[in-house]
Design brief:
This protein is of the alpha/beta class. It is about 40% helix and about 15% strand. The strands form 2 sheets. The protein has a 6-stranded parallel β-sheet with strand order 5-4-1-6-7-8, with helices on both faces. Strands 2-3 form a two-stranded antiparallel sheet.
Amino acid sequence: MQAVLFDLDGTLVDTAPDLGYALNLQRARHGLPFLPDDTIRPHASHGSRGLLAIGFGLEPTDSDFDAMRHEYLSLYTEVMTRQPVLFDGMAETLADIEQRGLRWGIVTNKPRRFTLPMIEHMGLSSRASAVVSGDDAPLPKPSPQTLLLACEHMQIDPASILYVGDAERDVQAGKAAGMTTLVALFGYLSDTDKPQEWCADGYILQPQELLAYL
């Protein structure tokens, strides 16, 4: 392995508190009470689609979905750097990867207008060898396009890259790209998720466990 690529939300960075706070601000706007963080957290990896489903029971086919999504994203823009933090053990894991002379990067379905300000705020932009967002390629994950774009940026063969994510689409994209895939079980998995059925190459309960695959 020459490099590690991470999904962002729910794998590298714990963004659920800010994603949930924006949703609750939106619910308050519409006369609804705040939802508990534990209710929102399992849906945080599924972006605005998943959040609007748990917050308002909305699906993309609903007539007011686009307007509500626009409102949600506007609110999230205001609070997205409120308290994002690396998951416990991730700072040490990144340092270990760098000490081994390996590189790491980020491939996320999060739009670039959110991804770049966040990692800049967290001081990660100068350390990541590649940062690819969901709108940097025609198709986001589960398509392998964004992962392959990261490979081009890093000039590393996909077979020499470990991809870590917390959603089934991460495993699907990683396998389609020809990478070794790990499921971050510490991420935003819901009760209905069945990660053992995703056919990943491994499963980790904490970030440091990925080092064994290097």
